[in-house]
Write a structure and sequence with these properties.
Strand content: under 5%
Number of strands: 0
Number of domains: 3
Radius of gyration: 21 Å
Shape: elongated
Oligomer: single chain
Largest sheet: none
Length: about 160
Amino acid sequence: MTEKIRDIALRYLAYRDRSEYEVSKYLKEKDFAYDDIENTLIYLNEFGYIDDKRYCENYINYAILKGRGRNRIKRELKEKGISYDMAQIYLDELIDRNFEFKNALKQAEKLIKNNMNDEIYELDEKMKAKVGRRLFNLGYNMSLIYEVINNLKITNEK
């Protein structure tokens, strides 16, 4: 049984990196015994097949590239079984306020550019609200959203 559960776990990990919680949940769904799952998780940890610290760092870098903010990243990591404290430590190491501001501003400008017509575009209240909702959904906090909206400059490049 030990080899079978290890093979299943390793195949599951072959597609992408996963947290210990994700692997555990997957094996539970496959109806393996608790002891077999625990032994498999120990094996996977010992040989570096799962490493929640590495997973956390990699996921944060991936989420940053996708334009996500701190709040959303923390929520997604929690869903993947990463503790709030671990997520906070790596977020603090990898993202400072200036970097997050620039990332949010880039997302706002991208949204506005995608909504521009050929004529000159004016940043009206409706567009500001749309930008605010988008940034909020991406996980940015409200003070940062207001700061981004107040710093938007629309240029019409033809």
